[in-house]
Amino acid sequence: MPEQAQTQARGRELLRIEGLNAWYGESHILHGIDFTVNEGEVVTLLGRNGAGRTTTLKSILGLVDRRTGSIRVNGSEIIKQPTHRIARMGMLGYCPEDRGIFSRLNVDENLSLPPRLGDGGMSVDEIYQMFPNLAERRSSRGTQLSGGEQQMLAMARILRTGASVLLLDEVTEGLAPVIVQALGETIRSLKDRGLTIVLVEQNFRFAAPLADRHYIIEHGRVAETIEASEIETKKDRINQYLSV
Amino acid sequence: MNVSLDLILAQMMLGLSAGVFYAMLSLGLAIIFGLLNVINFAHGALYMLGAFVALIGHSYIGPWLGYEDFQLGFWPALIVAPLLVGCFGMLLERTMLRRLYQFDHIYGLLLTFGIALMLQGFFTNYFNVSGTPYGGQPESLNGIVNLGFMYFPKFRLFAIVMSIVVCFLTWFVIERTRLGAVLRAGVENPKLVQAFGINVPLMVTLTFGFGVALAALAGVLAAPIYSVSPLMGANLIIVVFAVVVIGGMGSIMGAIVTGLTLGLIQGLTKAIYPPAANTVIFFIMVIVLLVRPAGLFGKE
Ligand SMILES: Nc1ncnc2c1ncn2[C@@H]1O[C@H](COP(=O)(O)OP(=O)(O)OP(=O)(O)O)[C@@H](O)[C@H]1O
Ligand SMILES: [Mg+2]
């Protein structure tokens, strides 16, 4: 299949998750998640509310109470590592669901908070060119920005770090269509730069044209893997899973 | 009432010289509470420990070690005591406090209260409860200066200036530098900061060490002014907690300003109505608790 050949040409495996189980306290949320992401790919995690997509990202970063299974980034196993080492080993940039903008930091400080993880990050000037809204508000407190601006800031600050894998949780949530479109363009240009992206999304229409592959998560498991080329043929199944 | 301006000014200077201790201790408490969510009841005992490091370094350590001539002077003590006590604090954090973060505030409070009692008990065993004078005050700071409205001990003036400088430097680092930005972010959302690749557990340890070192520094500065006693911290910390309640937990500038202001108010009261001087701070605390329970600088 030509699609598969293309996938392989895209490069080595950057993220491989096998049999991932995760708990918050006593509640067992993930029941054996498996998926892989290759260098340069955009992959989505789709699913209904409460399916476990946010938890999957948090488990990768060690932000859940307990997890088992295997998480390999760049070939090394990180499931036993403390959170701060995971970001560095995997060169992971994380944009949380609640955006995580710090209210006691201004825009500049929010932007330069995450430490550099690798070469090739964008400079602050480049970032302000990409997001002119932010440039105008550099000295405002982070939480005085509008929701859309906060979302841009949350994306922008991980672009500065030179992260090679971006974990983006519902970046389009609650944003106006124009901004969603702008975000789509941003993600496409990041993909062209060779970044690897895991997108957690509700908005299938936003995700579909960007992604190489979709994983549908249900009840803490991967229920279905759908290659970009299969979207048309599996349309009914997708609708059924997402109940759209 | 017939109170001269000179008397008022003089009492305010004395009030200020107490206020700088309130400020330094409540600043340390605020920093620790911000990142660790622990109300450090051992703060007074660690202040006492700082004073004892200065005292022991000056008068005891030489004979103990068999070098009769060896003395740790006041200037080196200003560095050595915060370092030693800071390291002791970091050890406490690593081995004990760390285990309690997942539980309610009250556990950290109880643990640190227990540590305070143990430290006090230990020193009460070996040292005079009524205090041992510290003989290490440097000659350059002996004597008095004429402030115009009063003659003021040179050393107290030095302690005031030094404490204020240290407080505002600390404020500057926290509010205006990159290091401070990481700290402020850590106060707000430690998990996310850690997910960005910052070693938050280490930052917590160092922050506790720094807050404790501030207390020890205050202890060294207090040694020549008040005599060094195992209970010096216990007496002071009660007032400091009232200061913290008035200022509100968590604000750096709030801790500094409230500490200094309450020292001044205490001095002023001493000039105007001396019998109330020891209770005025608690009186203010009650009013603040009724009107603004989160404290003057605290967020609801
Ligand atoms: N901190 C937590 N403590 C306990 N249970 C949690 C916690 N966070 C999430 N859960 C539970 O875990 C399950 C998966 O949640 P998760 O946030 O991963 O869902 P999601 O797929 O991201 O959905 P959403 O569209 O709502 O963001 C849900 O049933 C939720 O109730
Ligand atoms: Mg979610």
TrEMBL record, chain A:
Under the GO molecular function aspect, what terms does this record hold?
Answer: ATP binding; ATP hydrolysis activity; branched-chain amino acid transmembrane transporter activity
Highest taxon of source = Bacteria
Q: Does the keyword Kinase apply?
A: no
Q: Which CDD domains match?
A: ABC_TM1139_LivF_branched
| Keyword Cell inner membrane part of the UniProt annotation | no
Cross-referenced Pfam families: ABC_tran (PF00005)
Entries under PROSITE patterns matching the protein: ABC_TRANSPORTER_1 (PS00211), ABC_TRANSPORTER_2 (PS50893)
Domain ABC transporter as annotated: residue spans: 15-244
Q: Which UniProt keywords apply?
A: Amino-acid transport, ATP-binding, Nucleotide-binding, Transport
Give GO terms for biological process: L-amino acid transport
Give the matching SMART domains.
AAA
Protein family membership: Belongs to the ABC transporter superfamily.
Task: Enumerate the PANTHER family for this protein.
Answer: HIGH-AFFINITY BRANCHED-CHAIN AMINO ACID TRANSPORT ATP-BINDING PROTEIN LIVF (PTHR43820:SF4)
- Specify the protein name: Amino acid/amide ABC transporter ATP-binding protein 2, HAAT family (TC 3.A.1.4.-)
From TrEMBL, chain B:
* Domain of life the protein comes from: Bacteria
Q: An example Gene Ontology cellular component term from the record?
A: plasma membrane
Alphabetized, the UniProt keywords read: Amino-acid transport, Cell membrane, Membrane, Transmembrane, Transmembrane helix, Transport
Q: Which residues cross the membrane?
A: 20-39, 46-67, 73-92, 104-123, 155-174, 195-226, 232-265, 272-291
- State a single Gene Ontology molecular function: transmembrane transporter activity
Please provide the Gene Ontology terms (biological process) for this protein. amino acid transport
Please give, as recorded in its UniProt entry, the membrane topology of this protein: Multi-pass membrane protein
The compartments listed are: Cell inner membrane
Question: What is the name of the protein in this document?
Answer: Amino acid/amide ABC transporter membrane protein 1, HAAT family (TC 3.A.1.4.-)
What is the native source organism of this protein? Answer: Modicisalibacter muralis
Q: What is the lineage of its organism?
A: Bacteria, Pseudomonadati, Pseudomonadota, Gammaproteobacteria, Oceanospirillales
